[in-house]
Amino acid sequence: MAYNIVTIAGSLRKDGFSLKIANALAKLAPASLKLEVITPAGISFFNQDLEGAPPADWLAFREKLRASNGVLFVTPEYNRSIPGVLKNAIDVASRPYGKSSFLGKPVGIISNSPGPLGGVSAAKHLQTILPGISGPILQQPEIYLNGVGDAFDAEGNLTKDSLKTVLQQYIDAFAAHVAKNQG
């Protein structure tokens, strides 16, 4: 049996590195994981006034998360944090209070940047946001991918061997984390 993992690529850009990394992870995942790669596209803005009758897009996103066995975040860094669309998705999924769709779900965090810091500030912000609304977060290995600008070919295939090695190590560790934290 494969564990179903919702893999959220944290930006909306169709050629974004986070989406390319998420798709590469789906290909590298061991047989014990089935990654469904999504983006925050189509998730309307969170507004607490709508909680009594939540929009259909909120309900569908929440149900997708609830039906999963874990969540993997792949985020770029925007202005030393996560993209606003990713924070909005987290806000939508974590409500109503006490009924977070992330509760009990093993979580992984991967940040990335074409620059030298690898999105470390974005990853740290997720590590601040998620406790209390999610399940156990994979602590080791930490993964902050830098220099990802030349890691993919024109079709979005991962071509950088050093990045492939790191991603393989991470997805294998995440698979063990998910297996360990299932009911």
Can you walk me through this structure?
By secondary structure, the protein is of the alpha/beta class. The protein has helices at about 15-30, 55-65, 85-95, 120-130, 160-180, and strands spanning about 5-10, 35-40, 70-75, 105-110, 145. Helix 1 (about 15-30) packs across helix 5 (about 160-180). The longest helix is centred in the last third of the chain and has 20 residues, at about 160-180. The model has no long low-confidence stretch (mean pLDDT about 95). Pfam families: FMN_red. This is NAD(P)H-dependent oxidoreductase.
Low-confidence stretches: none
If strands are numbered along the chain, what order do they take across the biggest sheet?
A: 2-1-3-4-5
What is the β-strand count? 5
Rg measurement, Å: 15 Å
Count, helices: 5
- The termini sit apart by 15 Å
- H/E series: EHEHEHEHEH
**Which band does the percent of strand residues land in?**
15-25%
Quick one: biggest sheet? 5 strands, parallel
How would you describe the shape? Answer: globular
Strand pairing plus helix content: what structural class? alpha/beta
DSSP helix fraction: 25-40%
Mean of the pLDDT scores? 96
How would you describe this structure in keywords?
single chain, 183 residues, alpha/beta, 5-stranded parallel sheet, 5 helices, 5 strands, FMN_Rdtase-like_dom, Flavoprotein-like_sf
In brief:
The chain is α/β, with parallel strands linked by helices and 183 residues long. 34% of the residues lie in helices and 15% in strands. The longest helix has 20 residues, at 161-180.
